Amino acid sequence: MTTDDLFLRADSAAQFLLSRTMLRPKIGLILGSGLGAFADSLSDFARVPYSQIPTFPQSTAIGHAGQMVIGNAGSVPVAAMQGRVHLYEGYSAQEVAFPIRVFGRMGIRAVILTNAAGGINLKYQQGALVLIKDHINLQGHNPLVGPNEDRFGVRFPDMSYAYSKRFGQAAQEEAGKLGWKLDDGVYAALLGPSYESPAEIRYLRTIGADLVGMSTVAEVIAARQMGIEVLAISCVTNMAAGILDQPLSHQEVMATGERVRGQFESLIRAVLPRIATELGPNPALPKL
Ligand code: HPA
């Protein structure tokens, strides 16, 4: 596929989504394993299964509904993805990041990315929500590999400020107002789908990782290339391999996501208007 094809694909998917609603979403959300329920709380919504969106990748992971919900969270119009695709499903990093390209072409200038993660830092409790402040990409893939599409952004995007300081601060302030502390941490992304070995977790701790997961980083890289500002939050669904004397399971990941659903939703609801204010008036929509 040429870069022109990718750009046109993103444009036509964006146009299709905007044709399904009168709303013009300001913020895009990607809701990770067990965290998708937030999208069910939106008002004035249009739900669009990924299978209906032209050329959109289809998620196969359990716990991912596979639909885009465009609706209002309070007074903030958002586009929320219930479920994402992952490299471990066999998708390329370019496909994994495709929804971000679509968000960008919809005129979205900020995203909230969420995921389930294993806790490496021993100060985290299972069920904690953690602000991602940086990442370590150990997936061996990057969505920008191949000829550069200059209409998305530059060949060598800077990752020094990949995770928006002002959005992170707003999230920590809002968590404080809700009566709890939002810790921050460094997210290491691995390919998966097997969970890590205990030795790998000791290695990740040594190199400065606090959280481990199998998603998000390709999306962040594509977003930053497009100048989209990123807030990313992990739910520590389990302590990483070898920390507790017990096996890891996807059931546990899903159950923890479900358990913290209320807290997660309150935080996102509180943060959205803050981000919308920081962004200022809706920028002119990109020409479709
Ligand atoms: N490792 C990798 N990905 C994960 C984990 C984990 O422990 N928990 C949830 N997603």
Give a summary of the structure in a few sentences:
The chain has 288 residues and is of the alpha/beta class. Helices cover 31% and strands 23% of the residues.
Describe this structure in words.
The protein has one domain (3-279): Nucleoside phosphorylase domain (Rossmann fold, 3-Layer(aba) Sandwich), CATH 3.40.50. Helix content is 31%, strand content 23%. It has helices at 3-19, 93-96, 98-105, 165-177, 198-206, 217-225, 250-259, 261-279, and strands spanning 27-31, 43-49, 67-73, 76-82, 110-119, 129-137, 183-189, 211-213, 229-239. The longest helix is centred in the C-terminal third of the chain and has 19 residues, at 261-279. 48% of the residues are buried. Residues 116-118, 195-196, 212-214, 237-238, 240, 248, 253 line the site of hypoxanthine.
- What's the tally of helices? 8
| Percent in helix | 25-40%
Q: What does the main sheet amount to?
A: 5 strands, mixed, barrel
Bound small-molecule species: hypoxanthine
- SS content category: alpha/beta
Q: Which percent range describes the beta-strand content?
A: 15-25%
Label this structure with key terms.
9 strands; alpha/beta; five-stranded mixed beta barrel; binds hypoxanthine; single chain; Rossmann fold; 23% strand; 288 residues
Strand and helix layout:
Elements: H1 3-19, E1 27-31, E2 43-49, E3 67-73, E4 76-82, H2 93-96, H3 98-105, E5 110-119, E6 129-137, H4 165-177, E7 183-189, H5 198-206, E8 211-213, H6 217-225, E9 229-239, H7 250-259, H8 261-279
Parallel strand pairs: 1-4, 1-5, 5-9, 6-7, 7-8
Antiparallel strand pairs: 2-3, 3-4, 5-8, 6-9
Hypoxanthine (HPA) binds at residues 116-118, 195-196, 212-214, 237-238, 240, 248, 253.
